[in-house]
Amino acid sequence: MKKISLSIVCLFFIQFSFIGNSYCLNHEKNKNVDECQDLKCVRTNIDEINKKIVLLLSERMQYVIQAGNIKLKNNIATAEDKLRASQVINQAEKFGIENSLPPGFTKKVFEEIVKGSMLYEQKDMDKRKVKD
Ligand SMILES: O=C(O)C(=O)C[C@]1(C(=O)O)C=C[C@@H](O)C=C1
């Protein structure tokens, strides 16, 4: 009942006010995990975290592309740096464990991130090589 009346109030707000609009559509966002007691709330927050992860990956990729630019300037034609890649993965795995993630989880995620980054960096470097 409480939910239905809140929805009616929200429908009214969405029609007539910007502040009400954002409150009604966003009030489940950024709830801490203990405040989230239903799947809808949990999934709303997971979706928001996913967006933050994607934004960080996009920012990271800009630095990866810049690494490729610097390599080309220094006459290095290969994006892959195996030593650095394994340092990045091991450092992330250690930090993951320190932050309560299951062993091996962060390693797997970062293996994919670093491999995908390297392939995209190489593609971009090859494109530039042809152009210059
Ligand atoms: O540090 C570099 O040289 C990069 O190009 C970045 C990066 C990474 O994603 O962290 C990508 C490819 C290399 O194999 C190593 C590391």
Automatic annotation (TrEMBL):
<dbReference type="Pfam" id="PF01817">
    <property type="entry name" value="CM_2"/>
</dbReference>
<keyword id="KW-0413">Isomerase</keyword>
<protein>
    <recommendedName>
        <fullName>chorismate mutase</fullName>
        <ecNumber>5.4.99.5</ecNumber>
    </recommendedName>
</protein>
<dbReference type="InterPro" id="IPR051331">
    <property type="entry name" value="Chorismate_mutase-related"/>
</dbReference>
<dbReference type="GO" id="GO:0004106">
    <property type="term" value="F:chorismate mutase activity"/>
</dbReference>
<feature type="domain" description="Chorismate mutase">
    <location>
        <begin position="33"/>
        <end position="125"/>
    </location>
</feature>
<dbReference type="GO" id="GO:0009697">
    <property type="term" value="P:salicylic acid biosynthetic process"/>
</dbReference>
<dbReference type="InterPro" id="IPR002701">
    <property type="entry name" value="CM_II_prokaryot"/>
</dbReference>
<dbReference type="GO" id="GO:0046417">
    <property type="term" value="P:chorismate metabolic process"/>
</dbReference>
<dbReference type="InterPro" id="IPR036263">
    <property type="entry name" value="Chorismate_II_sf"/>
</dbReference>
<dbReference type="InterPro" id="IPR036979">
    <property type="entry name" value="CM_dom_sf"/>
</dbReference>
